[in-house]
Design a protein that fits this description.
With about 210 residues, this protein is mainly α. The protein has helices at about 5-20, 25-35, 45-50, 55-60, 65-70, 75-95, 105-120, 125-135, 135-155, 165-205. The chain contains ten helices and no strands. Helix 2 packs across helix 3 (about 45-50) and helix 9 crosses helix 10.
């Protein structure tokens, strides 16, 4: 079903575009897609596909060293953006725009993202958080599969009673833990494969 896993299809498309388009062109197309998406019904795949590329491109840009250094903003700016985000949400709710995809939520989204970037930069020396950040893509892609799979097993196979806190703890732990294990295992496999490739290349060069 496309609906629960829309982000997988969208992320795949964004990655494909990022591999073939220069960043400035990708930004222009993403901005146009964002504006066009505002004319579509909210919370359907078409709107989501057009609404989110601009944030993907922004993340690509912020990953560049020069822009990343510019984002080392002070606590005052972060606090101001937090207040801006809160005000934007309050105004949007007051006017009946509670959908998080609404364009009125854009200031809140920008403010919240910048604040989170500022917090992450303050905590970049914490090794555990850096490791989790490195694995964030794997967690993002696989968490819904692991969490939903755990819930199905608990309900349909183990017949565990629907105790809210128990499902919350177990499904969250598995939804986070399973992708981490999969990532670490894939890294081991990739490292082993690269080692074999290097050895094969060395043998080929010696034979040549």
């Amino acid at each position: 079903p496309i609906s629960p896993f829309w982000f997988l299809y969208a992320l795949f498309l964004f990655m494909m575009l990022a591999s073939v388009l220069p960043l400035p062109l990708f930004f222009v197309l993403a901005l146009a897609a964002f504006l066009i998406g505002e004319w579509l019904p909210k919370d359907n795949f078409g709107h989501q596909l057009l609404h989110f590329p601009i944030f993907f491109v922004a993340g690509m840009a912020m990953g560049r060293p020069k822009l990343r250094d510019l984002l080392r903003i002070g606590g005052g700016v972060a606090a101001g953006l937090t207040l801006l985000a809160a005000a934007a949400i309050a105004v949007a709710h007051h006017h009946g725009f509670s959908n998080y995809n609404s364009v009125l939520m854009l200031p809140a989204a920008i403010g919240g993202i910048v604040v989170m970037l500022w917090i992450s930069q303050r905590l970049e020396h914490v090794a555990a958080l850096v490791a989790i950040g490195t694995m964030s893509m794997a967690i993002y892609v696989m968490h819904i599969l692991a969490g939903a799979g755990a819930r199905i097993i608990l309900m349909k196979i183990l017949h565990v009673p629907p105790i809210s806190w128990l499902y919350l703890v177990l499904c969250t732990a598995i939804g986070m833990g399973a992708p981490v294990i999969a990532y670490l295992r894939s890294e081991e496999h990739t490292s082993e494969l690269q080692s074999h490739v290097r050895i094969s290349y060395a043998v080929f060069c010696l034979k040549k």
